[in-house]
Amino acid sequence: MSLTSPSTPELVYLQGQPVVQLRAPDGARATVLLQGGQVISWSPAGGSERLYLSERAVFEDGKAVRGGVPVIFPQFEQRGPLPRHGFARTKRWKLLRADTGRDDAIAVLGLTDDEATRSLWPHAFAVELTVAVGGNRLDLELEVEHRGAQGAAPFSFMAALHTYLRVREVEEARLKGLQGVRYQDSTRQGAEAVESSGALAITDEIDRIYFGATRALLLDEPHRALGIEAQQFPDVVVWNPWDRKCAALPDMPPLGFRQMLCVEAALIGEPVVLQPGEQWWGRQSLVAG
Protein backbone atom coordinates (compact mmCIF):
# COMPACT_ATOMS: atom_id res chain seq x y z
CA MET A 1 0.00 0.00 0.00
CA SER A 2 1.36 3.41 -0.96
CA LEU A 3 0.58 5.94 1.74
CA THR A 4 -0.13 9.47 0.62
CA SER A 5 -1.22 11.35 3.73
CA PRO A 6 -1.35 8.81 6.55
CA SER A 7 -4.13 9.47 9.01
CA THR A 8 -5.32 7.77 12.12
CA PRO A 9 -9.11 7.54 12.20
CA GLU A 10 -10.45 8.38 15.60
CA LEU A 11 -12.18 5.75 17.64
CA VAL A 12 -15.93 6.23 17.85
CA TYR A 13 -18.48 4.32 19.89
CA LEU A 14 -21.19 1.90 18.81
CA GLN A 15 -23.51 0.46 21.44
CA GLY A 16 -21.04 1.67 24.05
CA GLN A 17 -18.10 -0.16 22.44
CA PRO A 18 -15.12 1.47 20.67
CA VAL A 19 -14.87 0.90 16.93
CA VAL A 20 -12.58 2.16 14.20
CA GLN A 21 -14.28 3.18 10.97
CA LEU A 22 -12.26 2.72 7.80
CA ARG A 23 -13.13 4.56 4.60
CA ALA A 24 -11.03 4.19 1.47
CA PRO A 25 -10.73 7.11 -0.99
CA ASP A 26 -13.10 5.31 -3.39
CA GLY A 27 -15.81 5.03 -0.72
CA ALA A 28 -15.31 1.41 0.34
CA ARG A 29 -16.00 1.14 4.09
CA ALA A 30 -15.43 -1.19 7.01
CA THR A 31 -16.14 -0.98 10.73
CA VAL A 32 -13.92 -2.83 13.16
CA LEU A 33 -14.93 -3.48 16.76
CA LEU A 34 -12.14 -3.57 19.34
CA GLN A 35 -14.18 -6.05 21.38
CA GLY A 36 -13.13 -9.34 19.79
CA GLY A 37 -10.99 -7.60 17.15
CA GLN A 38 -14.01 -8.06 14.93
CA VAL A 39 -14.98 -6.60 11.56
CA ILE A 40 -18.74 -6.00 11.84
CA SER A 41 -19.47 -4.14 8.60
CA TRP A 42 -18.09 -4.01 5.06
CA SER A 43 -19.44 -2.24 2.01
CA PRO A 44 -17.41 -2.27 -1.23
CA ALA A 45 -17.06 0.94 -3.22
CA GLY A 46 -20.48 1.87 -4.62
CA GLY A 47 -22.03 -1.26 -3.12
CA SER A 48 -24.22 -2.36 -0.26
CA GLU A 49 -23.45 -4.14 3.02
CA ARG A 50 -21.95 -7.62 2.49
CA LEU A 51 -21.57 -8.83 6.09
CA TYR A 52 -24.39 -9.95 8.32
CA LEU A 53 -24.68 -8.43 11.80
CA SER A 54 -27.60 -9.58 13.92
CA GLU A 55 -29.96 -6.79 14.93
CA ARG A 56 -30.02 -8.47 18.34
CA ALA A 57 -26.24 -8.71 18.73
CA VAL A 58 -25.01 -8.07 22.28
CA PHE A 59 -22.26 -5.47 22.63
CA GLU A 60 -20.82 -6.19 26.06
CA ASP A 61 -17.31 -6.78 27.39
CA GLY A 62 -16.52 -10.46 27.55
CA LYS A 63 -19.33 -11.54 25.22
CA ALA A 64 -19.17 -12.68 21.60
CA VAL A 65 -20.89 -10.47 19.02
CA ARG A 66 -23.22 -12.30 16.64
CA GLY A 67 -22.18 -11.42 13.12
CA GLY A 68 -19.37 -9.83 11.14
CA VAL A 69 -16.09 -11.75 11.33
CA PRO A 70 -15.36 -13.13 14.82
CA VAL A 71 -11.75 -14.26 15.28
CA ILE A 72 -11.53 -17.87 16.50
CA PHE A 73 -8.31 -18.59 18.42
CA PRO A 74 -6.68 -20.73 19.81
CA GLN A 75 -9.39 -23.42 19.71
CA PHE A 76 -12.22 -24.18 17.31
CA GLU A 77 -15.61 -25.05 18.77
CA GLN A 78 -15.20 -27.54 21.64
CA ARG A 79 -12.21 -29.33 20.16
CA GLY A 80 -10.12 -28.90 23.28
CA PRO A 81 -10.26 -27.82 26.94
CA LEU A 82 -10.78 -24.09 26.39
CA PRO A 83 -14.06 -22.16 26.27
CA ARG A 84 -15.96 -22.72 23.01
CA HIS A 85 -14.10 -21.12 20.09
CA GLY A 86 -11.28 -19.97 22.40
CA PHE A 87 -10.96 -16.56 24.00
CA ALA A 88 -9.92 -14.13 21.24
CA ARG A 89 -13.49 -13.28 20.21
CA THR A 90 -14.41 -12.16 23.75
CA LYS A 91 -11.27 -10.13 24.59
CA ARG A 92 -10.70 -6.40 24.06
CA TRP A 93 -8.04 -5.93 21.36
CA LYS A 94 -5.80 -2.88 20.92
CA LEU A 95 -5.78 -0.68 17.84
CA LEU A 96 -2.11 -0.66 16.83
CA ARG A 97 -2.47 1.60 13.79
CA ALA A 98 -4.95 2.82 11.20
CA ASP A 99 -4.02 4.55 7.95
CA THR A 100 -5.69 5.79 4.80
CA GLY A 101 -3.70 5.27 1.62
CA ARG A 102 -4.04 6.07 -2.05
CA ASP A 103 -6.14 2.99 -2.79
CA ASP A 104 -7.35 1.60 0.52
CA ALA A 105 -7.74 2.02 4.26
CA ILE A 106 -6.10 -0.28 6.76
CA ALA A 107 -6.28 -1.06 10.46
CA VAL A 108 -4.07 -3.34 12.53
CA LEU A 109 -5.34 -4.72 15.82
CA GLY A 110 -3.41 -6.74 18.36
CA LEU A 111 -4.03 -9.14 21.22
CA THR A 112 -1.39 -10.47 23.63
CA ASP A 113 -1.46 -12.85 26.55
CA ASP A 114 -2.44 -11.60 29.98
CA GLU A 115 -3.17 -13.13 33.35
CA ALA A 116 -6.65 -14.20 32.27
CA THR A 117 -5.49 -15.95 29.09
CA ARG A 118 -2.56 -17.62 30.86
CA SER A 119 -4.93 -19.06 33.44
CA LEU A 120 -6.66 -20.87 30.55
CA TRP A 121 -3.78 -21.39 28.14
CA PRO A 122 -0.30 -21.02 29.68
CA HIS A 123 1.54 -19.52 26.72
CA ALA A 124 3.04 -16.16 25.72
CA PHE A 125 1.62 -15.11 22.37
CA ALA A 126 0.77 -12.17 20.14
CA VAL A 127 -2.01 -12.13 17.56
CA GLU A 128 -2.44 -9.39 14.96
CA LEU A 129 -5.38 -8.85 12.65
CA THR A 130 -4.83 -6.63 9.63
CA VAL A 131 -7.97 -5.32 7.93
CA ALA A 132 -7.66 -3.68 4.50
CA VAL A 133 -10.60 -2.29 2.53
CA GLY A 134 -10.66 -0.72 -0.92
CA GLY A 135 -12.46 -1.10 -4.23
CA ASN A 136 -14.47 -4.31 -4.19
CA ARG A 137 -12.16 -6.14 -1.72
CA LEU A 138 -11.94 -6.85 1.97
CA ASP A 139 -8.66 -8.48 3.01
CA LEU A 140 -8.17 -9.95 6.47
CA GLU A 141 -4.81 -11.30 7.60
CA LEU A 142 -4.28 -13.06 10.91
CA GLU A 143 -0.79 -13.47 12.37
CA VAL A 144 0.16 -15.55 15.40
CA GLU A 145 3.53 -15.39 17.15
CA HIS A 146 4.94 -17.54 19.93
CA ARG A 147 6.51 -15.01 22.29
CA GLY A 148 7.78 -17.45 24.86
CA ALA A 149 11.43 -17.36 25.90
CA GLN A 150 13.91 -19.73 24.29
CA GLY A 151 13.34 -23.14 25.79
CA ALA A 152 9.65 -22.55 26.49
CA ALA A 153 7.24 -25.27 25.47
CA PRO A 154 5.81 -25.09 21.93
CA PHE A 155 2.10 -24.47 21.53
CA SER A 156 -0.44 -25.68 19.01
CA PHE A 157 -3.55 -23.80 17.95
CA MET A 158 -6.57 -23.76 15.67
CA ALA A 159 -7.98 -20.60 14.13
CA ALA A 160 -10.81 -19.37 11.95
CA LEU A 161 -12.29 -16.18 10.55
CA HIS A 162 -15.94 -16.93 11.35
CA THR A 163 -17.33 -14.86 8.47
CA TYR A 164 -21.07 -14.13 8.46
CA LEU A 165 -21.91 -13.24 4.87
CA ARG A 166 -25.08 -11.26 4.17
CA VAL A 167 -27.32 -12.80 1.53
CA ARG A 168 -30.61 -11.54 0.17
CA GLU A 169 -32.28 -14.95 0.54
CA VAL A 170 -30.20 -17.94 1.60
CA GLU A 171 -32.26 -20.46 -0.37
CA GLU A 172 -31.44 -18.59 -3.57
CA ALA A 173 -27.67 -18.58 -2.91
CA ARG A 174 -25.29 -21.21 -4.28
CA LEU A 175 -21.78 -21.86 -2.93
CA LYS A 176 -19.43 -23.11 -5.64
CA GLY A 177 -15.95 -24.62 -5.36
CA LEU A 178 -16.36 -27.40 -2.78
CA GLN A 179 -17.16 -30.33 -5.08
CA GLY A 180 -15.00 -33.37 -4.30
CA VAL A 181 -13.90 -32.07 -0.89
CA ARG A 182 -14.22 -34.29 2.19
CA TYR A 183 -16.31 -32.85 4.99
CA GLN A 184 -17.43 -33.63 8.52
CA ASP A 185 -21.12 -33.04 9.21
CA SER A 186 -21.89 -31.85 12.75
CA THR A 187 -25.63 -32.23 12.13
CA ARG A 188 -25.05 -35.99 11.70
CA GLN A 189 -22.85 -36.66 14.74
CA GLY A 190 -19.66 -35.90 12.82
CA ALA A 191 -20.34 -38.29 9.93
CA GLU A 192 -17.96 -37.81 7.02
CA ALA A 193 -18.80 -37.55 3.33
CA VAL A 194 -17.49 -36.03 0.11
CA GLU A 195 -19.25 -33.03 -1.40
CA SER A 196 -20.98 -34.10 -4.60
CA SER A 197 -22.53 -30.77 -5.56
CA GLY A 198 -20.83 -28.25 -7.76
CA ALA A 199 -23.23 -25.58 -6.49
CA LEU A 200 -24.15 -26.16 -2.84
CA ALA A 201 -27.71 -25.06 -2.03
CA ILE A 202 -28.76 -24.28 1.55
CA THR A 203 -32.22 -25.69 2.23
CA ASP A 204 -31.87 -26.82 5.86
CA GLU A 205 -29.51 -26.54 8.81
CA ILE A 206 -25.89 -26.94 7.73
CA ASP A 207 -22.78 -27.25 9.93
CA ARG A 208 -19.86 -28.72 8.02
CA ILE A 209 -16.08 -28.58 8.12
CA TYR A 210 -14.55 -29.08 4.68
CA PHE A 211 -10.94 -30.30 4.99
CA GLY A 212 -8.34 -29.32 2.42
CA ALA A 213 -10.67 -26.93 0.61
CA THR A 214 -7.93 -24.99 -1.16
CA ARG A 215 -9.81 -23.76 -4.23
CA ALA A 216 -11.30 -20.28 -4.43
CA LEU A 217 -15.03 -20.25 -3.68
CA LEU A 218 -17.86 -18.30 -5.25
CA LEU A 219 -21.07 -17.38 -3.43
CA ASP A 220 -23.50 -16.87 -6.29
CA GLU A 221 -26.79 -15.01 -5.86
CA PRO A 222 -29.26 -13.61 -8.39
CA HIS A 223 -27.68 -10.43 -9.82
CA ARG A 224 -24.54 -10.52 -7.66
CA ALA A 225 -21.69 -12.75 -6.49
CA LEU A 226 -18.90 -12.85 -3.93
CA GLY A 227 -15.48 -14.42 -4.44
CA ILE A 228 -13.91 -16.00 -1.36
CA GLU A 229 -10.18 -16.74 -1.36
CA ALA A 230 -7.92 -17.99 1.42
CA GLN A 231 -4.22 -18.56 1.99
CA GLN A 232 -2.85 -20.86 4.69
CA PHE A 233 -6.35 -21.54 5.96
CA PRO A 234 -6.72 -25.06 4.53
CA ASP A 235 -10.26 -25.73 5.78
CA VAL A 236 -13.68 -24.15 5.25
CA VAL A 237 -16.63 -24.12 7.62
CA VAL A 238 -20.14 -23.66 6.21
CA TRP A 239 -22.85 -22.91 8.77
CA ASN A 240 -26.46 -21.82 8.88
CA PRO A 241 -28.61 -22.64 11.95
CA TRP A 242 -31.92 -22.72 10.00
CA ASP A 243 -35.25 -22.03 11.63
CA ARG A 244 -35.37 -24.04 14.88
CA LYS A 245 -31.83 -23.31 16.07
CA CYS A 246 -32.03 -19.70 14.96
CA ALA A 247 -35.23 -19.18 16.97
CA ALA A 248 -33.43 -20.57 20.03
CA LEU A 249 -30.54 -18.09 19.78
CA PRO A 250 -31.33 -15.06 21.96
CA ASP A 251 -29.05 -12.79 19.92
CA MET A 252 -30.61 -13.65 16.54
CA PRO A 253 -34.02 -12.61 15.15
CA PRO A 254 -36.16 -15.68 14.38
CA LEU A 255 -35.84 -15.24 10.61
CA GLY A 256 -32.24 -13.98 10.65
CA PHE A 257 -31.01 -17.28 9.19
CA ARG A 258 -32.52 -16.27 5.85
CA GLN A 259 -30.14 -13.32 5.46
CA MET A 260 -26.86 -15.00 6.41
CA LEU A 261 -24.48 -17.79 5.55
CA CYS A 262 -21.22 -18.39 7.39
CA VAL A 263 -18.35 -19.35 5.09
CA GLU A 264 -15.29 -19.44 7.31
CA ALA A 265 -11.61 -19.62 6.45
CA ALA A 266 -10.36 -22.13 9.00
CA LEU A 267 -7.42 -24.07 10.36
CA ILE A 268 -8.90 -27.07 12.16
CA GLY A 269 -7.87 -30.47 10.80
CA GLU A 270 -4.15 -30.05 11.37
CA PRO A 271 -3.40 -27.52 14.14
CA VAL A 272 -0.25 -25.45 13.72
CA VAL A 273 2.60 -25.96 16.18
CA LEU A 274 4.87 -22.99 16.91
CA GLN A 275 8.17 -23.00 18.72
CA PRO A 276 9.30 -19.91 20.66
CA GLY A 277 9.97 -17.08 18.20
CA GLU A 278 8.06 -18.69 15.32
CA GLN A 279 5.14 -17.10 13.49
CA TRP A 280 2.22 -18.18 11.34
CA TRP A 281 -0.14 -16.18 9.15
CA GLY A 282 -3.32 -16.82 7.20
CA ARG A 283 -5.42 -14.60 4.95
CA GLN A 284 -8.99 -14.40 3.73
CA SER A 285 -10.07 -12.12 0.88
CA LEU A 286 -13.65 -11.27 -0.08
CA VAL A 287 -14.17 -9.86 -3.57
CA ALA A 288 -17.60 -8.42 -4.39
CA GLY A 289 -18.99 -8.86 -7.87
Automatic annotation (TrEMBL):
The active site is at H162, E264. InterPro entries: Aldose_1/G6P_1-epimerase, G6P_1-epimerase, Gal_mutarotase_sf_dom, GH-type_carb-bd. Transmembrane segments: none annotated. Its EC number is 5.1.3.15. GO terms for molecular function: carbohydrate binding; glucose-6-phosphate 1-epimerase activity. Pfam families: Aldose_epim. This is Putative glucose-6-phosphate 1-epimerase. The lineage of its organism: Bacteria, Pseudomonadati, Pseudomonadota, Betaproteobacteria, Burkholderiales.
